[in-house]
Amino acid sequence: MGLFMNGERIETDVLIIGSEGAGATAAIEASKKEGLRVTIATKGRMGKCGATVTGDADFDVDSRSLHELFPWLEGTDPRDSQEIFFQDIVKGGKYLNNQRMVEIHVKEAPERLRDLVDWGVKIEWVMHSSGHSYPRGVFIPGTRLVPVFKKKVKEGGVEVIEDTMITDLLINDGKVAGAVGLNIRNGNFIVFSAKAVVIATGGCQRIYPITTAPEELTGDGLAMAYRAGVELADMEFPMFLPGGFVWPPALLGVDVPFILSTAGRYGPGHLLNRYGERFMEKWAPKTMEHSTRDICSVAMMTEILEGRGSKHGGVYVSLKHLPDNLIDFIHEWQAPEVLWRYGGFDLDEFIPRDSLKREALEAAPASHFFNGGIRINERCETNIAGLFAAGEVTAGIHGGNRLSGNAFTEMVVWGTRAGRFAAEFAKRAERQKIDEAQVEKLQSNIIQPLDRQEGKRPIELKKKIQELAWKKVGVIRDGPTLNEAIHEIRAIKEKELKELYTQSKDTAWNREWVEALQVENMLQCLEIIATAALAREESRAAHYRKDFPNTDYLNWTKNIVVKLVNGKMQLRTEPVVVTKLKPPAKVVPYGIVE
Amino acid sequence: MVKILRSNPKKGENPRYVEYEVPVEEGASVLNVLSYIYENIDSGLAYYCSCRIGKCKGCIMMINGKVGYACTTPVRGDVTLEPARGFEVIKDLVVNLEKKVEV
Question: A257, A413, A471, B103: least buried by Cβ within 10 Å?
Answer without folding.
Answer: B103
